[in-house]
Specification:
This protein is of the alpha+beta class and 82 residues long. The longest helix is centred in the last third of the chain and has 25 residues.
Length: 82
């Protein structure tokens, strides 16, 4: 499982990190809060902001599914006009 930050995921797709966050709110994608060991003294782990990351494979699956849904919707719209 290869993890990337929300910012990196958004940049790869040409979206905002908020858009990726919306996918997570809709249950399409899991967002993981990560603290890299050694970055923060153990006594402060609960007090620091954590980096939010997504699994690259899961992200690819969501993008593919959303792409197919978009293509299907466009085809449906084209068929209705005939």
């Amino acid at each position: 499982m290869s993890m990337i930050s929300l910012g990196d995921a958004a940049a790869r797709l040409g979206l905002s990190p908020e858009a990726i966050g919306e996918w997570a709110k809709k249950g399409l994608l899991h967002v993981h809060s990560v603290v890299t060991p050694g970055d923060v003294p153990p006594a402060f782990v609960g007090l620091v902001a954590r980096d939010q990351q997504v699994d690259e494979e899961e992200l690819a699956q969501v993008v593919e599914s959303l792409g197919w849904l978009q293509v299907s919707a466009e085809d449906w719209d084209d068929d209705e006009g005939e």
